[in-house]
Amino acid sequence: MRQKVLTTVITFQSSTQAMAMERECKRTGFEGRLIPVPREISASCGLAFKCERQTQEEAAAYMQGHSLEFDSIYRVLI
What we know:
Blueprint lengths: L5 E6 L3 H14 L3 E5 L10 E5 L4 H10 L6 E6 L1
Antiparallel strand pairs: 1-3, 1-4, 2-3
């Protein structure tokens, strides 16, 4: 079984916002990828962005610096 790791996960109000985050990250080299919203955060369907190594503060600063909208930022074991 794969070991769970404490990870920064960003949620969005819409899939469009999530895809905008992914597009901007690929363009600028900010590491991460889109994932389904983890059950630990919400039972609803949707997309979230899983950061590779960034902290909550680094992710928030990046998003604000690139005018990206988001709902919340979490630290979860996934």
